[in-house]
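Researcher: We plan to redesign the surface later, but first we want a full-length starting point. Tokens attached.
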């Protein structure tokens, strides 16, 4: 059977268009993480908070799903136990619980965005949005930076583990020297390599690049974009004093 680049891209195509993922991520960052709208937007925020986990289930990313759910349970558990704790611990539980319940949802969506979108798809989506190269190029480099740094961190930990240097071990004091210093050096090198790779592929050139990635909106994209749009509309209505539900 002959190889077809178009068929391979269509088979690899994700569940959502990259522009839809970006819109959901921005919406979560503004309303859930940023807390825009206050208590009047709580029902909408609950719906938005469920979207990343539903998407992870659709993409069958069980590990990220379970990790996100566990962190959310820890956050809500701390908030539940807060009234029963003494003064200092009460403040710590409130702080940690508030951070977890707000940050986890947006972080999970960011992981989903990076894990299910290739650099080519991301660049194609940014070009469709008519974003300038000054924004597209740094973000495309950052798109590959975090996964590469994560893989490098695991390699350094395995190498140090073979030498008996690990947290909680007899030589735990050497963790900073033998793990963090190589990680910082590797991060700088990885950033330079990715920047050079981006320029080599012509991302900074004056000629418009072609792209074999096929992206486009489907039914599920339309539904999720309508949810994002409805969130903004509800927020604007709340600013005008229109209450859609009573407490």
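Model: Full-length starting sequence:
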């Amino acid at each position: 059977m002959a190889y077809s680049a178009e068929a391979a891209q269509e088979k690899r195509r994700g569940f959502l268009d990259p522009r839809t993922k970006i819109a959901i991520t921005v919406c979560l960052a503004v309303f859930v993480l940023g807390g825009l709208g206050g208590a009047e937007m709580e029902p909408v925020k609950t719906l938005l908070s469920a979207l990343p986990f539903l998407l992870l289930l659709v993409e069958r990313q069980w590990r990220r799903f379970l990790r996100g759910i566990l962190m959310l349970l820890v956050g809500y558990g701390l908030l539940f136990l807060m009234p029963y704790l003494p003064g200092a611990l009460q403040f710590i539980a409130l702080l940690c619980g508030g951070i977890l319940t707000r940050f986890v949802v947006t972080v999970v969506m960011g992981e989903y965005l990076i894990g299910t979108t290739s650099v080519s798809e991301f660049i194609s989506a940014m070009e469709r949005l008519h974003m300038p190269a000054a924004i597209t190029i740094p973000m495309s480099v950052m798109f590959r930076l975090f996964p590469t740094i994560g893989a490098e961190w695991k390699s350094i930990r395995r190498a140090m583990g073979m030498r008996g240097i690990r947290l909680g071990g007899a030589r735990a004091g050497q963790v900073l020297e033998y793990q963090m210093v190589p990680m910082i050096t590797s991060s700088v090198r990885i950033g330079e390599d990715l920047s050079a790779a981006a320029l080599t592929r012509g991302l900074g050139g004056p000629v418009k690049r072609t792209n074999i990635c096929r992206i486009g909106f489907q039914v599920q994209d339309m539904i999720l974009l309508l949810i994002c749009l409805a969130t903004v509309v509800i927020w604007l209505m709340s600013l005008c004093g229109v209450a859609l539900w009573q407490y």
